[in-house]
Specification:
heterodimer, A: about 160 residues, alpha+beta, Alpha-Beta Plaits, two-stranded antiparallel ribbon, 5 helices, B: about 650 residues, Aldehyde Ferredoxin Oxidoreductase,  A, domain 1, Aldehyde Ferredoxin Oxidoreductase Protein, subunit A, domain 2, Aldehyde Ferredoxin Oxidoreductase Protein, subunit A, domain 3, six-stranded mixed β-sheet, about 10% strand, metal ion binding (chain A), iron-sulfur (chain A), metal-binding (chain A), 4Fe-4S ferredoxin-type domain-containing protein (chain A), electron transport (chain A)
Chain lengths: ~160, ~650
Amino acid sequence: MSQQKVIMINADQCCGCRVCEMACSLYQEKECSPSLSRIRVVRNEAVGDSFPIGCALCTKAVCVEVCPTGANQIDPATGTGVIIEEKCVGCRACVRACPFGAAGISYKTGKAYKCNLCNGDPQCVLHCPTNCLEYAPVELTVRHRRRALADDVIAKLKGE
Amino acid sequence: MYGWRGKRIRFDLTKGKWEVEETPYEYRRKWLGGRGYNSEVLYNEVGPDVDPFSPNNLAMLGVGPLSGTFGPSTGRVTVTAKSPLTGGFGDSNMGGHWGAELKFAGYEQIILKGKAPKPSYIWIDDDKIEIRDASHIWGKFPRDADRIIKEELGDKDIHIVTIGPAGENLVRFACTFNDCYRAAGRTGHGAVIGSKNIKAIAVRGTGGVKIADPEKFYQITSDWRKTMRTDPMAQGLYAYGSLVLIMPCNYEMGWFPWKNLKYGYHPDARNISGEVWAKKHLKGKEGCFSCAIVCGIHSEIRDGKYAGEYTGGPEYEACVPTGPRVGIIDSNECLHGAVLTNNYGMDAIEAGASISWAMECWEKGYLTAKDTGGLELNWGDAEVVDKLLRMMAYREGFGDILAEGPTIAAKKLGVGEDCLVSTRGMSLPGDDPRGLGFGYGLSFAVGTRGGCDHLRSLCCLELSGYLYPGLNEKIVGTEACSKPLVTDGKAKMVWWEEHHKAFVDCLQVCCFNTHWSYGCRNEHLIPMLNAVTGLDFTEEECLTIGERIYNLERAYWSRQLSGKNDDVVPRRFTHEPMPENPAASSGKVLPIDEMLPDYYKLRQYEPETGFPGDKRLRELGLAYVAEELKPYREKYIAREKQKKAKKKDKE
């Protein structure tokens, strides 16, 4: 488990450019459309804040649980999302249940879509110009974050 | 259909009606999109007799085939109208996300005609269109209007074009915004939209852009994006926004626009440099749609009198006009000016130029307290700048005359012609060609929207010598022009860049990719266009499209009898050597006459009138324009003869 990689978010780095949405929809759906992107950016233009939201790769994924046909799955080998298109009936159960708003129905096919991490090379991460998105092992990344925070606090306590 | 969505909306605001029109293949191939569409419609439908504030003027917003794709910064929009500032052809473009959203909704262009009976805003929800009451947001700042409309429509993910109070009050240089702070600054179309009683255009698009060859498009764009990570200009822009310019502009080249561009240098310019800004004011980065550079910033004031104020930006050209141009060098005060121009919805450049013109007039004694209603217009007085910006936006007191822009103000008051830094009625930005480069100077003289025009040719090739060696050899045929302060090859450089820029503006991708940095060149851009559209554009065809648009815009001026007589730069640059400074510009003047004749030849303009050449117009598929110009040529020649005779009489 310590090696499982997910798309980590450096929260203060998102500039809201939405390159991730374009890279995703073009790579996955062969069309440029935010509506087909597995990752979406929430922007607040007035104050210049943005934040990307995509599939969290839930351990107990509600989209899988609620799927009535078994189309919505997690690949046990890689831990990433899979939609068996032949089984999907476009009922939106996954869309309605996902607490992150990260599932969707393609307007092209009428079937559900979900992030599959581009077979290990997520294109949203590849093209993120600010390095807000990072494809990295969860455990290791949070260790780094903890350490950076601790170093910072300790330095302040010592008056450095 | 790939790339384009192939539709545009024509609003008749007087009747409260609209029509969705298809753009046929031949049309798309000839005019491409964005600026091309807008210029074509303006030329054909808004003649020389139409008053810019009349309902018969058009305000248009256009996007192109690459808009809303994975291409380079594809959120841009060109806004076009007959300019109330210059009375001639006017357009400018803005970044943000609205352009992409319009495309996702299914359109490339919006055309506004007529005048709504009461303050209104437009709501485009994919194929559902509505004109709604805006009386409750009339008078609001763009960012507040943006918030209220989003709350009202119940969706904060939509994108909205807005105008500010200045647009409503018909300030002749009011601008158009989207996403709160992204301004299409120049030529005053914000006031044209205001004159039509339109406050905002909100868009929600849930569709997409079909790509003819997605794998190829993805490959080309991915490869190009990787190169942008190491592009030297892109890196500078990413780190500091366009304020990265301040240090080289002032300390090396000497084109810092100090006091109405009289001087090119100030010892404390680093106060507002990107490097200092990043520590003192930078609140965060904000990227336009699909951007590979991310020059956008948000800034805040943390101490002093204006503490707590914030705004999107400013970029270089929005920071210097209400700063150094009016003699202010304190960064808090510069930023405060930018906050105000954003809030009121005014073109920062023209607003700063109005004030700096008045300040120079005051210094020379042309204006006194009697004219200004008691205000003393001393250089560097931030209080006065604050007051004047408000007075202009709401057309109060002396602000009412400054809201006409300096060129009209000088005419009305009958003073200060010699203090104008403008061509064709529009003020120059904070780019002094005596230091920035002679190519820039040439483009100021000939630009098709008047004085701006560093953005008509965006003649960065002359600055690119050391960053992109070999590029000029390829494009202009010589590396001799790779330095700013020489005249060699500049005519050809400007000529080429003007075509290229027009082409880029049709695609509505950001010129910081294609001109400022040369990271995205035609060898990337044209294959991208072909992969997206499935067509077979060549570089030659694309540049011809650019040339066609350029000539059409020039013909727009010709039809208003503006030709060779207006191809001049302000006296300041040709007759006043740059005051002594430690930078390269010291003592320089702009040798415009060494470049203009070559430029005319390349453009095939008529030597006598400066009208587009009849033969070239026909070759460009503009025979109808060539026919139309004939009587205007006669009129122009007759008028010039008369002028000469009058001059002789006086002598």
